Inverse folding.
């Protein structure tokens, strides 16, 4: 069905899809590596692009396309590419936009490997980057060089929950002919639409809220314009970053309940954040839904809800944080986020351990910071569990 003018929840259910001769209500899993041509001319027309047809799964597959079309509609983009992981999405962007001699500006507290690979791997190709506090737009303006080609934001950022002003940064980027990419993993398009706010590219780790069930790894990139989409597609197809049809099918299935999962998770998160803020063993709480968040007003402006990830500091620092993580019973001690289950982790020793201690400290990833991704269990059970774990400190 044509869902272009449908509401968000209807798009979640009905976008994408393919014409299936047998009338399947859900898109089937096309578990095939290659597709049969009707004849030699048909094969030639598919390869030349004269006719739209499937050729080989690395280049395109109906199950994958179902997911890509849906994500593109949800993000209001021109075209999307589903890839093997969130990091494949990040690298698709880096490799498509940056050439030798180029410079990139990124937020200093992004997902660990998104910064790590840029600092440790790309310099060998003469690509350089500055990671700084993008919540301060003057910082960005001061750092722009003639060879700056990309501004890379993550907002809210992992794990400090910093919120960058997408519209204002987009205006600055446009003034300097720089592309803007936003990692929208923490919000999902249900809460924030970076392309509508002026970004050129949006990406997700679908491992998180998009799939939402902690059972696959996947990523997606959506471009606002055709020429950027074509560049991303060239890299995706030739680097072999494509997602597997099975994984794509699970992501598409998980996506159907994004709105209801997000509503429940963020309602829970709001309660848990308030509970933590009032807890005697908790030093501080960072959550976009709390008035105490430094960019609370900006969050209200560009996000339609606070999301479900909370960072907090336990009084007593690292040791106290460890005690909490070792004492939880309902929350699961595991990295990742955005699933139906509550997950708790310690970025300094886990997700962000590969960054130097200085880089972490500079980006506000302190030793006492604990990150919790709130699931869709009963809020009372999550709070009771945290209360007993904090009681062990
Ligand atoms: C998890 C995550 C990634 C990386 O995604 P993978 O699917 O693990 O490769 C990128 N950005 C953010 C914000 C993430 O949380």
């Amino acid at each position: 069905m044509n869902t272009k003018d449908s509401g968000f929840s209807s798009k979640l259910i009905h976008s994408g899809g393919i014409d299936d001769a047998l009338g399947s209500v859900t898109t089937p899993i096309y578990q095939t590596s290659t597709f049969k041509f009707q004849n030699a001319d048909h094969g030639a027309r598919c390869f030349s692009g004269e006719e739209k047809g499937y050729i080989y799964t690395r280049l395109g597959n109906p199950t994958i396309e179902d997911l890509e079309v849906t994500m593109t509609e949800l993000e209001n983009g021109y075209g999307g590419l589903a890839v093997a992981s969130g990091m494949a999405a990040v690298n698709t962007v880096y490799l498509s936009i940056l050439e030798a001699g180029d410079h990139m500006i990124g937020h200093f507290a992004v997902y660990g490997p998104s910064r790590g690979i840029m600092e440790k791997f790309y310099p060998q190709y003469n690509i350089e980057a500055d990671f700084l506090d993008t919540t301060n737009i003057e910082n960005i303006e001061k750092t722009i060089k003639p060879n700056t080609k990309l501004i890379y934001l993550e907002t809210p950022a992992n794990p400090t929950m910093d919120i960058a002003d997408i519209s204002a940064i987009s205006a600055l980027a446009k003034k300097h002919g720089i592309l803007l990419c936003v990692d929208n993993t923490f919000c999902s398009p249900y809460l924030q639409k970076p392309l509508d706010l002026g970004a050129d590219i949006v990406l997700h780790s679908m491992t998180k809220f998009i799939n939402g069930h902690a059972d696959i790894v996947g990523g997606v990139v959506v471009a606002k314009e055709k020429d950027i989409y074509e560049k991303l597609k060239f890299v995706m197809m030739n680097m072999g970053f494509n997602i597997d049809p099975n994984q794509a099918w699970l992501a598409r299935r998980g996506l159907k309940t994004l709105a209801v999962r997000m509503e429940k998770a963020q309602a829970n998160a709001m309660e848990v954040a308030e509970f933590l803020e009032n807890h005697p063993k908790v030093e501080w709480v960072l959550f976009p839904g709390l008035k105490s968040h430094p960019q609370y007003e900006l969050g209200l402006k560009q996000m339609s809800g606070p999301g479900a990830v909370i960072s907090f500091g336990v009084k007593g620092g690292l040791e106290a944080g460890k005690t909490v993580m070792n004492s939880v019973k309902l929350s699961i001690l595991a990295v990742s986020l955005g699933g139906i289950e509550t997950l708790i982790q310690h970025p300094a020793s886990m997700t962000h351990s590969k960054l130097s201690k200085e880089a972490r400290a500079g980006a506000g990833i302190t030793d006492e910071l604990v990150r919790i991704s709130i699931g869709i269990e009963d809020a009372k059970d999550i709070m009771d569990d945290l209360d007993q774990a904090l009681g062990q400190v």
About this structure: The chain is about 40% helix and 15% strand. The chain has a mean pLDDT of 96. The longest helix spans residues 258-277. Residues 64 and 248 are 5 Å apart (CA to CA).
